[in-house]
Specification:
two-stranded antiparallel ribbon, four-stranded antiparallel β-sheet, single chain, Alpha-Beta Plaits, globular, 108 residues, 31% strand, alpha+beta
Length: 108
């Protein structure tokens, strides 16, 4: 079955503006994804790693990508199609709470 990586973007203000019943439903959606085997997690502090021409690893604090909303979490899930992956994550906290979720098909 195809795998998809999702990146959720959202902030506390959007989460707090979302009515409690919608927030609880979105967390229940994440729980169902986890129960079905998806790997779902909250984003931690980011760093970049480079190893130019194999001269040694260099770490830099902070993300490479820029976004108006901070990265809030990630998931790796199996779905039979991109449409189904979109359906599955459309009820996640970031999608519901005025954020956004990117869905990236993963090919081996």
């Amino acid at each position: 079955m195809p795998k998809f990586i999702t990146i959720g973007y959202g902030d506390r203000a959007g989460y707090d503006r979302t009515p409690e019943p919608l927030r609880q439903a979105s967390h229940a959606n994440d729980a169902r994804l986890i129960a079905s085997g998806a790997l779902v997690g909250v984003a931690g502090r980011c760093l970049q790693v480079r190893n130019p021409q194999d001269t040694g690893a260099v770490r830099t604090d902070g993300p490479y990508m820029k976004s108006p909303l901070p990265v809030a979490g990630f998931a790796i899930l199996d779905a039979p199609s991109l449409d189904e992956a979109v359906r599955l994550v459309s009820q996640s906290p970031c999608a519901i709470a005025d954020g956004v979720v990117e869905v990236w098909p993963l090919s081996a």
